[in-house]
Amino acid sequence: GEETWDECFIAEYPSVSAFVEMIRDPVYREAVKHRQAAVLDSRLIWMAPAEAGTGFGNDG
Fold it and tell me: What is the domain partition of the chain in residue ranges?
C-alpha cells in the first residue's frame, strides 16, 4: 500500500564518525528506545551534498 508520513526532518552531523559515536553512546542507546516505541515506523536516509542538478532529470 501507499505510505503516508506525519513528519520529516533533516539533521546534519559534523562527520560520519560523529554520528557513529553518537549512536554507540550508552545514554543515546537508552533514550532511543523511547523514540522507537513512540513511532510506528521511521527511516534513516543517509544523504551527502552534491552539485546542483547532479542526479536529476537528464543530468545524471
Answer: 8-51
Q: Give the dihedral sign, CA 37/38/39/42.
A: negative
Q: How far apart are CA 22 and CA 28, in angstroms?
A: 7
- 5 closest CA partner among 53, 45, 34, 57: 45
Buried (b) or exposed (e) across 30-57, using 16+ Cβ within 10 A? eeeeeeeeeeeeeeeeeeeeeeeeeeee
Asked if 44 and 36 count as a contact pair (C-beta separation under 8 A), the reply is: no
Tell if the pTM clears 0.70, that is, is over it.
Answer: no
List the chain residues with pLDDT less than 70. Answer: 54-60
